User: Fold this.
Amino acid sequence: MRYGRSVVTLALAAAAVLVLSPPPAAAQTVVKIGNISSYSGFVAQAADQAQKAVDLYVKEHEKELPPGVKLEIIRRDDTSNPEVGKRLAQELITREHVQLLTGVILSPVAAAIAPLTAEAKVPLLISIAAGGSAIPRISPYVARVSFTLWQQGYPIGKWAAEQGWKKGYTAVSDFIPGHDSEASFTKGFTDGGGQIVGAVRIPPNNPDFAPFVQRIRDAKPDVVFFWIPSTQATALVNAVRDVGLREAGIQITSTQDLLPDEQLPAMGDTPLGLITSGNYSTAGVRPANATFLAAWRREYADAAIPNFLSVNAWDGMVAIFDLLKATQGKFTADEAMGFFKGWQNPDSPRGPIMIDPETRDIIQNVYIRRLEKPDGKLANVEIATIPMVKDPWKQLNPPK
Amino acid sequence: MSGALSAAVSIGFHGLAFAMVLYLISVGLSVTMGLMGFVNLAHGVFAMVGGYVVTSLMSRFGVPFLPALLAAAVAVAAASLPIERLLYRRLYGGDELDQVLLTMGLVFMSVAAATYVWGPLQQPLQPPAWLSGAVDLGFRSFPAYRSFLILCGAALVTALWLGIERTRFGAQVRASVDNLRMAQSVGIDTSRLFMTTFALGSGLAGLGGGLGADLLAINPGYALQNLAYFLIVVAVGGLGSIRGPFIAALLLGVADSGFKYLLPEFGAFFIYALTMAILLWRPRGLFGRA
Assistant:
């Protein structure tokens, strides 16, 4: 008993010494970064995919930071709500004095935060949200490292028209990225000579897709283009199976959101053979992808499969680490933006990427992928590469 | 078959499948609310757990679909008993705000717990081979899984009605809903009745969650995402009724799929408008007692 007590006293004393002892003599530069993500709400699953990549990157590469530079990432949950996201960004800027904001799953949240970055001169590096091609134009302090839906919707629209499909139908989720993908597919498809015979917008928080899919089946188009947030992909594929859309001879295409790699094992063979556009697939044959997948497997084993959201978030951390290395952790907002403009990573798991110095949006390869079963497991196999695609929306809508 | 008729059949079919899932999950909520006056916003948690039990048993332990469903119903009913004894019982007849706070807290805890145990990903239900095809009825074919859902729902509804109308237990439940104090004074052990009814309602929710796992996807946010639907079924149907929620679920399911099919732009909105209209007309629901 007595011995036990003295051990406790000793431990307490040791703890007190640890707490009271002054910080190490070497001057430390602490870089505070606000990471805003949707850890709860209807895209919580997407936030988890991204967060796993951020955690893994920091764990693997923290030791590469310049000596004396310490990175502090402050996580905030926007609950999938733009108003909350805006308030949290405000708090991070005014109370926590973060030097940089990053993350952001939902485009509406990115749009809500963007004006603040101009007022407060705090850069925002969007690493996941893909909707709202115009978002970087809201503020000169916004850059994007993920992708834009125009980047993927426009080429797949053109591709669909090239297959000789004449009558197209679009069915998209009714918020910013859905509107972007609808507009971009429509533009690509009609530019290629196709015609849109019907368009439907699905409420973002929708449990059963069968009535919408049935409507499309009864309209008998040649091809339907879907866009839903990746978190609803399996539910939509189930409705496609139940309604028998493919059996009815209707072609289906989409961006990568319909066939996210981590959900493929749950989908069965319904989507086998579907062709989609995307910026990343776990099946991509690149050395950097093999390295990334090996690191992921070491950390998460079979408990998780990465997808495009993970790789986008990963590249966001690469850009931030590069910034810290280049500036020794001391940078102003303008210096950070100057660094991001033209930043490139020739060796991302998704291939070469670069932030366009003019538009501050990402330039990258867009892959046309076919869902195949190379070794008994479904995989988005890349069958064609459109190299270094700039955001088509910005080219079609030059700034006034 | 003409286009309009085909559309009507589609709407009816998908609406019916959705309605059955909603009914199985919500009927227990209606009875416990009517019987105990307890606002149990955490009812969806039981459905979610049922879904997790079914998907885990099937994918990890290779249990066939039907035994897994049965196991889910039994497991959820059993698990609900200690919750009723330890937590809910204290707030019977208490302040409604306290009940709402307690059960909302349980919902948030369920989100965190499910994320911890099963991760944030949606749990896939792989229907067995005999349910993954289509049933050809001559004039057109229907997806087998949804047809099975409708048949199961219909069988359970019939069993439930017979049980409430024809058995001694059913008579006790009806008596207690009508007049609790009178039921107690003629010697009905209402405390035990509450417990049994609660377990039954929870078990049905677990069954509904498992059965409908392919339709209402099983993920940690389940109880929160679908709460509005469950509450609409109960509010429109009327508290304490077995038949009310059934009519309400049918109305909600068919109207929901109908509006989505015919007027997709307003698909999500009409349900709420319809609910408001019905409640303005009959504030206690279609079958609620004055």
Observations:
- Chain A has 14 helices and 14 strands.
- The mean pLDDT of chain A is 90.
- Chain A touches chain B at residues 40-42, 44-45, 47-48, 200-203, 205-208, 210-212, 214-215, 218, 231, 234-235, 238, 241-244, 262-263, 265-268, 303-304 (CB under 8 Å).
